[in-house]
Amino acid sequence: MEQKKEEEVLRLIISKAWEDINFRKSLVSDPIKAIEDLTGAKIVLPEGKTLVINDQTDKTKVYVNIPSEPNIEDIELSESELEIIAGGGQTVWPDLINSLFPALKNYIIV
Fold it and tell me: What top-level branch of life does the organism fall under (predicted)?
């Protein structure tokens, strides 16, 4: 599936979950079936992986997802990131944190 179609499917899933509480419950309890029933798209996960959907619609809460720890062996740094690290400069953590938790930074006061 090309990227544009994937984005359309994701928008459809999210908007349907916002509009329809029953679909949202179904999405949380059996995400693959709910997505396939709604879109007709086939969900094929890599072996050993599962799809987890968390309902984060409660506006009284701030949600933070803890990503899996990256496999250092698989990380490829850009030339500029390598230069920064080689020169003893800043690490790539600020960019990583900002990309993973964009909303959280609005609530952190240092």
Answer: Bacteria
pTM higher than the cut 0.90: no
Task: Note whether 29 and 21 are within 8 A (CB).
Answer: no
Rounded to 10 degrees, the C-alpha dihedral 87/88/89/94 comes to 130
Angle at 14 (CA atoms; ends 12, 18), nearest 5 degrees:
115
Rounded CA-CA distance 63/70 in Å is 21
List Cα–Cα distances, 92 to 4, 9, 23, 31, 101, in angstroms.
Answer: 29, 32, 39, 33, 14
* CB contact at 8 A, 55 and 24: yes
